[in-house]
Amino acid sequence: MRKMFLFFVVLALLVPAGMLFSAGQREADPTDTVHARLASEEVEGDFMTVWAENFAEFMYEETDGRITIDVYPFGTLGDTRDINELAQLGVVEFVFSDYAWISAFVSQANALALHYVWPRDNLPEVLEWVVQNGDYMVMLEEKFRQNGLVPLGILYEGWQWITSKYPVYEPADLRGLKTRIMGSQMLNRNYLAFGMDPTPMSYGEIYSALQTGLIDAQIQPMFANYSMGFYEVTEYFVQLWAEPFLGIPTVNMQFFDSLPEHEQQLMRDYWANVVIESAQWIDEKNARDLEQIKAERPSITFVEFDDDQIAELREITRTQVYPRFPEIGGPDSDVMLEALLNDIENAKAALGL
């Protein structure tokens, strides 16, 4: 069924455009108009779609209208895995994905899904330094290119919350909790180590799965819990401070390499330079959505794990999950994880944190 759906999406996108991607097979004429498509993983008004639209506007203005990018919000071109595959195939030129779903195509990206890698404080500033100055991004691009893709940046969208139908006040309460996660082997390993029952499931199925009791819990940043209505079918919001939600704007390699170098650099510079600005935007949105959830569902209980509880989970992660990361991350993943951890420490030192 999924393959048939993708076939019709490909047909619908390519035929009206006169086989749009054929331009990606040769060096682009800088006088030609480029009409590209960007598939977003999130709904209208949420982070990825808003910043994809900002990117489209930026590219249109900076190229004097040569590059036009149409943004497709979640659901219009398929589910999260579908849109990553469409970008890999070149049916759409861009996809705004995340660290978990993209790891099905680039296994080394699983390093970004490891728990307790990123600092709780000043994360956007650290991330900006890593993206602009670190070694990890260079290594990550090499692995993306081996799979026909190019990462244009990494952006912060807030910390992940567990929303549960059952009480969770301490690590022991996580055991046996049947929880929807994104499609990442690394996330699966993380949550198994906590004693949870992780269940990969598409974004569009979560609400009904919670409503019907198919799952006990799910994990999302605050804005998604509000925009997708997950707070309507949950009783507890739980913060482990383990996992920031990271977005990865990505472009099809053949399309990207067909563009003049100055336009490639425009794309890279845009995403590198909006890490802090977009983080401030999403922090404000997350705060507003949190207050709205509290107003609409005052019965919801909010729980944040304390330092001792976090230390317990961090120790589990470092001793049980990190050593087995290369089994999931694939070739060179151990070296890349070391580079990422070094980048983060170098960022903190450079920023005086």
Summarize the structure.
The chain has 353 residues and is α/β, with parallel strands linked by helices. The protein is 46% helix and 17% strand. Strands 1, 2, 3, 4, 5, 6, 7, 8, 9, 10 and 11 form an eleven-stranded mixed β-sheet that branches.
Instruction: Flag low-confidence runs.
Output: 3-12, 14-26
Provide the CATH top-level class of the largest domain: Alpha Beta
Summed up, the domain count is 2
**CATH level 4 superfamily of the largest domain:** Bacterial extracellular solute-binding protein, family 7
Q: How many strand units?
A: 11
Characterize the biggest β-sheet: 11 strands, mixed
Order of helices and strands: HEHEHEHHEEEHEHEHEEHHHEHHH
Outline type? globular
Report strand %. Answer: 15-25%
Task: Please tell me the CATH architecture of the largest domain by its name.
Answer: 3-Layer(aba) Sandwich
Going by helix content, strand content and strand pairing, the class is alpha/beta
Mean pLDDT: 92
Counted by DSSP, the helix tally is 14
Q: Span from first to last CA?
A: 50 Å
Helix % is 40-55%
